[in-house]
Amino acid sequence: MTVRRTSLLLAFCLFLSEVGFVNTVHAEEEARISFIAELRLHGFIDNYGNIKIRNSKLTQLPPGLVTKGYLDIEGSRISTLPDNLEVGGYLNAAYTPLRRYPNIRVGGYIDLSGTFIRRLPGGMRVNGDLSVTNTPLTNLPRRLNVDGNLYLANTQITELPPDLKVSGNLYLRGTKIKTVPDTVMVGGQVFR
Question: How is 64-111 classified by DSSP, letter by letter?
């Protein structure tokens, strides 16, 4: 690196520290490291990067949390997911008090059964099954792409978006959906 580049980089870092950006990033990093160390201490993280905190009393996840494996928070008290969460495997958030689902990266299936989520982000892609059974959802987002089965039982959904893509089966029992538009792509069967 040249002297000029080094000077510019140093000046930029000083600027960021002056406006508080570095301190914020540093504090978030410390919180994330502390959170992971605490989980590892109590056996909630295995050697593969999976985090299993089912039925725990935890109420939040740290910002910027990245898991190499799955994240299983079923039955916990976690009510929000960080906007910048990344999950390498599946996400099981069933029966949690979640009210919002941010546009996050998840490498496998997503289970949101029994949550209070009312809306999913547009253009959402799921790399496996998606279950939203027993939720107050009233519609699905445009451009939803599910690379597995889609479970909609006991929701208030009355119609499907015309650009919905489901590679597996589509489960409609317990919904008020009367027809499946011809433009909806389903790779498996439709169960009513």
Answer: T-EESS-EE-TTS------TT-EESS-EE-TTS--------EESS-EE
